[in-house]
Specification:
360 residues; alpha+beta; eight-stranded mixed sheet; four-stranded antiparallel sheet; 29% helix; 27% strand; elongated; binds zinc ion
């Protein structure tokens, strides 16, 4: 059985040694559930699919969600784990079984927490968003996602990573008139018209915005270009796809309007194809502010879109905080510095433990 009370470094290794590629999490969920039932006290435990939920119901003034996915990307000949010098190597060591181990260890060893704790050990995070079981829990067991702050144990190198940027894509299409390129003056070249679009993009000055101490750096980039009919034809259509990564102080509507403003006056059609809103860091709320303090103020913005945004959409301030370097996730040589596992455990233990012991 997994030993939740022992060293979380050993627990990380034990979790890595249970293969758990997405959609194949039954065994790891069984092991996590059994260990929680046997080695924790005061937790209400629910198993749903291959997700294991556990929470205290002490009536404390605030509640903290500790959420970690149990699945990994496909194993690449990197399981079982290996310890080499100060690093633990293997699939899931940083993304994110070290984070899971820290949470499970704290659930089993913090006896008198300052906040009620909800542990969410979920499946199918590494595949399409519609399979992610956080979405299912939100629909079927919504009260399990109520909290004052949610901590996702994704690798963040010891920083609190808060909020996330939004993303929006538009396809900008120019029209024209086809003609034989030997008599080009009879045509109207759509590809040439995109030159003005690309010119606006290359001159664009992206904003950097500070929100709650996190600096978000925006980007407006051409990510694809399509056009052309044949080697001897003036093209009558061409398009460029633009991706706008925007700070969470803009809504999707405002971000879309901004892109249209940047391209204002050009002879093109603009069609928005997809968008996802960002998430404000929300670090000024008390339970979140205490977390930042416990981390010694080490806060930075999260750029990519993560499950943090799901919680933000539910009105729960959410952060990523976990051992490991996010740049090593999903790599064949994935590994974690074991010192970061210990440091993350100590930091969260400070946060979860009251400053002065409560009187019995
Ligand atoms: Zn992850």
């Amino acid at each position: 059985m997994l030993d939740l009370r022992g060293d979380p470094i050993e627990l990380t290794a034990a979790l890595v040694d249970i293969p758990s590629e997405s959609r194949d999490e039954a065994r790891i969920a069984d092991e996590v559930e059994a260990a929680l039932r046997e080695q924790t006290t005061g937790f209400e435990i629910v198993r749903t699919g291959n997700t294991v939920l556990a929470r205290t119901n002490r009536g404390l003034p605030s509640r903290v969600i500790l959420a970690g996915h149990l699945d990994t990307v496909p194993i690449a000949d990197n399981v079982p784990s290996r310890r080499v010098d100060g690093e633990l190597h293997g699939c899931g060591t940083s993304d994110m079984k070290s984070g899971d181990a820290v949470f499970l260890h704290l659930a089993a060893t913090v006896d008198d927490p300052a906040h009620d704790i909800t542990l969410v050990m979920y499946d199918c995070e590494e595949i399409e968003a519609s399979a992610n079981s956080l979405g299912r829990i939100e629909r079927e067991l919504p009260d399990w996602l109520h909290a004052d702050v949610a901590i996702l144990g994704e690798p963040s190198g010891g920083y609190i990573e808060a909020g996330c940027q939004g993303t929006l894509r538009v396809v900008v299409t120019a029209g024209g008139t086809r003609a034989h390129s030997a008599r080009s003056w009879l045509g109207d070249n759509a590809i040439h018209k995109l030159g003005a679009v690309l010119d606006r993009l290359s001159k664009y000055q992206a904003r950097s915005v500070d929100i709650d101490g996190c600096v978000y750096r925006e980007g407006l980039s051409a990510v694809r270009i399509d056009g052309g009919v044949a080697g001897n034809v003036i093209p009558d259509a061409a398009s460029v796809t633009i991706n706008f990564r925007f700070a969470p102080d803009r809504s999707i509507e405002q971000a879309g309007q901004h892109v249209r403003d940047v391209l204002d006056g050009l002879d093109v059609q603009i069609e928005q194809t997809d968008a996802a809103s960002g998430a404000l860091p929300g670090l000024t709320k008390p339970a979140a502010a205490a977390l930042v303090e416990a981390a010694g103020g080490q806060v930075r913005a999260k750029y990519g879109w993560t499950d943090v945004a799901r919680f933000a959409a539910l009105g729960v301030p959410a952060v990523n905080f976990g051992p490991g370097d996010p740049n090593l996730a999903h790599r064949v040589d994935e590994r974690v510095e074991v010192g970061q596992i210990t440091a993350a455990t100590e930091m969260l233990r400070r946060y979860l433990t009251p400053l002065t012991p409560r009187l019995a």
